[in-house]
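Quick question, first post here. What does this chain look like in 3D?
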Amino acid sequence: MLVEHRKGEIRDITFEMLTKGRELAEETETELTAILLGNAVQEHAKTLANNAAKVLIVEDQKLENFNSELYQATLHNLISKHKPLLTLIGHTSFGLELAPSLAVSLKTPMVTDCIGLTFEKRELLVTRQMYGGKVNVLARLQPAESYIATIRQAAFQSKKEAGINGEIIKVDLPVSKEITRKQFIEYVMPPPSGVDITAADILVGIGRGIKDAAEIPSVEELARNLGGVLACSRPIVDKGWLPNDRQVGSSGKTVKPKLYIALGISGAFQHILGMKNADLIIAVNKDQNAPIFGVADYGIVDDLFKIVPALKNQVNQLKK
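> Answer (accepted):
Ran it through. Tokens below.
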């Protein structure tokens, strides 16, 4: 599996793939190998070795920043040499640019956006979602010596300390030619007003039940008092009350916070798809039959405009 990292940090999708990769390796009686490409990334080796039987490290100045053309050439060489049964890549902007061209160059079957994987007689079976998440499809790939699969973020739980103490192997960059067609220029970060809800430990989500944009500041204050961030379901973005970088769901962002509080969100499957893997989910809705209660750890059937002030008051009391 390919380690995804950015600006010196290993991204969460890597640990999710490592956890699932260990399961698949045990299932197929193979070994999990993590491939780390970069420059001055040796510091990550021990962490990765705790989670994989082998860690292949390719360090070179040319790999300082992600370049799909250089990554493709490097991975083509490594995969051709080691012949893994399955190569896992994150279904991210990083992976979406890399995986298809890599599969073509290797003439290897590829499947994208997987939320489930297993093997049956060394044939790969995957679970994917169709029709906006309304249907889960179990698909069997045609028999092949090797496969490539991209993994949806937050589809699997991650475990960062598996205690494996794997072997760390340094490999020279196998690509000698200069990459000129694609070149890294710079990272363009979100504007200062932008918020990355995928990085928040606490999210307070609002839906149709908020009724009026004038009520949003009160809920945002609750989120701040909790040390969290305000998020929302699609209707709030459609109304123009919050920007689309705050939207949770299949057409927004997939999040996995430690705490998710859903206020006035009925829980359409598109929204649930984006937040169901939160560690703790608390839902507040007047409708006792709202689907959100089906995934909530705790549910409150009441008016959110009664609950929000009570929560704010309790939080303020605890801070004194």
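The first strand starts at residue 5 and ends at 6.
The longest helix spans residues 12-28.
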